[in-house]
Amino acid sequence: MNSNTTRHHAANRRQGALDPGRAGLDGSDRAGSDPGAGDPAGAGGVNGVLVTLSQALALLFDHDLHPATGISRHTIDSYKTTFRLLLRFVEHSRPQLSCSRTPLERFDAGLVEAFLRHLQEDRRCCRATLNVRRAAFSALARAVMRRYPHLVGYCQSLLALRSRKAPQVLVGYFELHELEAIFSAVDTSTPDGFRDLVLLRCLYNTGARASELCALRFADLRLDEPAHVVLHGKGGKSRTVPLWPTTVDMLRAYLKAARRTPKPAHQDRLFIGRRGNALTRQGLYKIAHHYIQAAVRRLPQLARRELHPVCSFRHTTASHLLMAGVSLPEIQDLLGHARLETTMRYPVVSLERKRYALTRLLELRSHRPAESTETNKSSDHQKLIDWLERL
Hints:
Layout: H1 3-17, H2 20-23, H3 53-64, H4 73-93, H5 109-121, H6 127-147, H7 152-159, H8 176-184, H9 191-206, H10 210-214, E1 221-222, E2 228-232, E3 238-242, H11 245-258, H12 281-296, H13 311-323, H14 328-335, H15 340-343, H16 351-366, H17 380-390
Antiparallel strand pairs: 1-2, 2-3
Helix pairs in contact: 3-6, 4-6, 5-6, 6-7, 8-12, 9-11, 9-13
């Protein structure tokens, strides 16, 4: 037997020792019950190349999702959360796959579907969240397919995972009197209370996302004319938003007397939390939720389900601009939407305007003109009313 044949057989023996299917880790005592048992290609690749989940994740996060590529930090954090949840799911429901040498192909489309069902049924995740988690596996598949062509079949099975059709969510926003009730619920006699009011006012003025407002630095703020703030949004895109004079005055007062002393690492951050760190999205959520709940005592309708403690301020900005006659492309630019279709989700007509329109329709219906004896017995208005009644 020549040396090449000897090395080939030795490689096969090492590969077989690493095959979870042969070791009985898949819950079966039969050798060969695993599709890759006895076959180096099935155990992790061709020519004895074993690819594990940890190797695939290192490839994804160190190369495809490296910050230098310009990928959003939020996207990276979201994908990390997905795979942390997957590993916890595997640890409890598929302990035989917890071995660090388990081939990547054992984490197949069937396992991923079971994981997504677990998120939906046990963790009560909505369909939109499931689609975000599914996107992480698609990113993993694309990264692996480029580096390991022999795993193209496995990767295609992950890419073929179906997305969940998420229902169209009603965008909640505040009417003007509701917004004033929320602002009035803030106790501005304390520095933190005044900071909270500045936060809420800035949310409404700028239409900023929670992450954009919390990430503001002094370099992003200009209080002299023309006063504006630079928001850094999704996809590394930045935009400039003008500030109202009242917002400028409140920011000046906040910086002079109400801003907490920050820790050295957060000196340049605009909004500081109680512990001296930069304010987080979770902290902003709690602040806004607290004052909305306080305003509910005065206006019970603020307890409606479609309202979100932070996002509804952004939606309110868009809706009020639309009602004021501002064009959709201008609102798209102000909010930082990549597509105009996203901006078009926001309500164009307030509830009060809708109520007025329906009242006018009833008045028109009750004062319809008398029928004519001519051949044309219905006016154009009557035809329209009849058509509306048949809808």
